[in-house]
Structure formats: C-alpha cells, structure tokens
Write a structure and sequence with these properties.
Rossmann fold; single chain; alpha/beta; seven-stranded mixed beta sheet
Length: 464
C-alpha cells in the first residue's frame, strides 16, 4: 500500500492514467487530512509537532496506489493491512524516541481509527467517480486497433470493460473481409490496414494499437511510415521494436503488454514536472520583464501604424491550431495560406522590429501563451500553419514534433538553427533536433537550453 524509494523511482519513468494519478495523490492527501481533521476536532493547534509528523507521513505514503480496478473486499483488506504496518512503525518510533508523548492519546487513537475508514471511503468513491468522469463527452481518448485477431480483440475488451482507463475503441482495421473473420467481439470493421492513416488524420484518433502478426513486418513498416503524418500515439501489441522509437517504452493494459513506438515524454509525473516548471519560469520572467514589455509596446506603437501584438496561427500540441502572441515587428500581419519567411533585408520589417527580432524581444508575449497552457518555455519552435502544411509533405516524421507543446526556445535554436531555413536540408536538421528533444527530454535538458538561449540571443545573428 505505502511507497518506498524504489517505487518512487520507477514511478517517474512510467506512463500514468487518471486512475493512477488519483491513486498516487489520494492516499497521502487522505492520511494528512484525517490528521488535520482529528486535531481540529480536539481543538489541538496544528503546530510544529504536527507539521513534522505530516512530513513523515507524506514521505511514507507518497506515491499511493490506485485501486480503481480492485474489488471492495480487496480494497478494505489492503488498506487495513497497510495501515496496521504503518501505524505499528509510527508507534514503535514514537515510543522509542519519546515523541509519542507530545500528542494527546485521544488524538492519536481517533486518528488511527478514522484514517483507514477515510481511506476506504475515498478509494471506493474514486472507484465510482473516475469512470463517471471519464465517460463524459470529450474526456476519453479514442483508439483504433490494426488487426482483428485474438490479441487485438482482447485489448479492445479490456478498454471496454474497464472504463477507468479512459480509452474508447472506435473500431478495427484488418485486410480480411467480415466473412473471413471468425470473431468481431461486437466491434466494427472500419476498413483495410492501408486506410488507417487517412482515418486517423480525418477523425483525430488519439491512440493506435498495432496487433498485426509479426510475420507481416514489411506491411507494419509501411504502415508506420504512413502514420508519421499523424499526431496519434502509436503502440505495438506485443513488444516488438522494428522502427525508430520516440519515447519508446513498455506499457500494459491490465497485464497485456504493449510497446510505445511514438509517444510524448510528458506523461504522468513528467507532465506535472514540465507544467510546474513552465508556470514557475514564465511567471518569474514576466514579473522581471514587465517594465521592458511596456516600453516595447510603446516603441512598436510609435514606430509604425498597426496593432502592438501580432497573433499568428500555429500548430500546437497534437497538431491542434493555436494563436501565438508576438510584438509586431513588420508593417504587415500576414497569416494566410502562403507566408514567406523573413529574410535578411526584408522590407516588411520595421527598423524597431529589426531590433526586436535580432534580440528575440518580439517573442516575450509568448510567456503569456505559456501561462495559458498553449506553449512551453522549451520545446520545438512553432511554425506558421502554411509552413507546416508544406514541410509535412517533404520531411518524414515532421508532425511528430507536435507530440509536445511548442516552445519559446528549443534544442534546434541553441544548435545554430535559429532564423530563416531557406533550404530543405536546414529544415530537416531543425526537425531532427526537435525529435532528439522528444527522445531525450529531462528537466536538466530544459534548464540547459534556457541558459544556452541567453548566450545565443547575445551572440547569434541568424535571426532577422
């Protein structure tokens, strides 16, 4: 029931569902809330001894365990056994150190009785509420399965029976006709395998599971190539590695092994870490540069007619369109189907705008985009929609960069690929850097890129 250091380490490397995240946070929250409630009921001030006890409890109970898939008797049994072990350890430590005398006996007794009851009630409530929450429109992720065979059908049944996983299988793709299929399990046949990529692009499929026989490896490779122009997460069933992996990892669906072929690094705890660091950095930077932003806004307004802020359409997370903010640096606000990249000596750029672009000060409003959740401080730079539609046809794997939020700065920008990409080779090099970022993300890499960006802005002259 209660975590140890090794479990915490493994948790940071695993993909978590909503049920897992609730389980991780629920147990420590309930234990601490029960302590606070009992202390308040007995009119005990929540002072230093209680704070120290709370820190000890948090370290022993975090992360918790999800019990959404367990039966009621299993939930009660595991909670009672786990709580008896934890309570025994605390009593032994408290008695040996004399720390137990600090707390009134009635508070300790009430807390030891109330906590397992509260834990059981919270886990049972989560068991009922999480499926209801995920059943709401727009909460579930849609999935399709390639291969209507025993493995594929078993996978689809797991998703159907266990709604807390938050995945809805919309159908299968298989090269056999319905007459040749021995079993469909009540799921629809959506088409041939070679039609899967088009279906995924047109219907915003979130997850694709490949349950094709390994004897058809050439067909799987062809399918993977066609799926590179989608933003869906792709998994093999079972664990076979036959292509370049983006955040490849083992996973399972209720014990059935699957392998991630193309996935975002920001899942579960990593997602929390990334978002928290974005909010912290963006808030701090905006606080520091707000006077400069006011001065820049006045400069833009005085230097040429037009709006201060220029909003341009970009592709964000999962290829969804977003609006990105910039200080206007040109005499025009182009955002159509054809947008020429800025070039050296470009007549559209104002004199003040040239200074802003050279120093990257025109990007400062994008920290607001970060707080809105549309962008990250570090990630692949967002390209204009028109450029995306052009390069996705020319560069394999181009759309994979949209598995993460676009960033104000990125690995490509600190590796000499900032500014205009006048050749296809330069754009390919930029995309390769973006994919390397997805493969190797860590919080340390983000901080390194931020620090290197400062030096690049000072010395680099590729932006104009």
């Amino acid at each position: 029931m209660f975590a140890v250091i090794g479990k915490q380490h493994n948790l940071l490397r695993s993909k978590l569902s909503l049920a897992s995240i609730v389980g991780i946070l629920l147990e420590p929250a309930v234990v601490l809330c029960a302590l606070g409630a009992v202390a308040a009921f007995h009119e005990e001030p929540f002072e230093a001894p209680y704070v120290i006890l709370s820190l000890i409890l948090f370290s022993l109970t975090f992360p918790g365990t999800s019990r959404v898939s367990d039966g009621y008797l299993t939930i009660v049994r595991d909670i009672l056994l786990g709580w008896l072990v934890l309570a025994g350890l605390l009593l032994l430590f408290g008695y040996a150190s004399g720390y137990l005398k600090v707390f009134p006996q009635e508070v300790i007794f009430a807390w030891f009785v109330a906590t397992p009851v509260a834990l059981a009630a919270a886990d049972i409530a989560a068991k009922h509420l999480i499926p209801l929450f995920l059943a709401q429109e727009g909460r579930q992720r849609t999935a399709v399965v390639a291969g209507m065979n025993e493995v594929g059908l078993r996978l689809a049944r797991q998703f159907k029976e266990k709604s807390y996983l938050g995945v809805r299988v919309v159908g299968f793709f298989d090269d056999r006709n319905k007459e040749r299929l021995t079993e469909t399990g009540g799921f629809g046949l959506l088409g041939k395998v070679n039609q899967l990529a088009d279906f995924a692009k047109q219907n915003r499929v979130d997850l694709i599971y490949l349950a094709l026989p390994m004897a058809t490896q050439p067909r799987i490779l062809n399918l993977l190539e066609s799926l590179r122009d989608t933003t869906a997460s792709i998994y093999f069933v079972p664990d076979i590695f036959v292509t370049d992996l983006i955040q490849g990892r083992m996973d399972d669906v209720s014990g059935l092994p699957v392998v991630s072929v193309c996935e975002t690094p920001f899942i579960g705890i990593n997602g929390f870490i990334k978002r928290a660091s974005d909010i912290l950095l963006a808030s701090l930077i905006l606080l520091l540069v707000s006077p400069a932003m006011l001065a820049i806004a006045a400069g833009v307004k005085l230097s040429s007619p037009g709006p201060v802020i220029f909003m341009q359409r970009r592709y964000g997370l999962d290829g969804k369109e977003i609006s990105v903010y910039k200080f206007r640096s040109m005499t025009v606000c182009e955002d159509g189907d054809s947008v020429p990249q800025a070039q050296r000596g470009d007549r559209r750029i104002t004199r003040f705008g040239a200074f802003l672009r050279r120093t990257s000060l025109d990007e400062l409003p994008q920290f607001i985009n970060v707080l809105q959740g549309r962008m990250s401080v570090v990630g692949p730079r967002p390209h204009a929609v028109a450029h995306n539609e052009l390069y996705r046809k020319l560069i394999k794997g181009y759309m994979i960069r949209h598995k993460v939020k676009p960033g104000i700065t990125g690995l490509a920008q600190v590796n000499g690929l900032r500014g205009e990409t006048e050749t296809l080779e330069k754009m390919k090099a930029r995309i390769e850097c973006d994919l390397d970022y997805l493969r190797n993300w860590s919080l340390g890499l983000d901080l390194s890129i931020v620090l290197r960006t400062v030096l690049v802005v000072i010395r680099d002259r590729n932006a104009y």
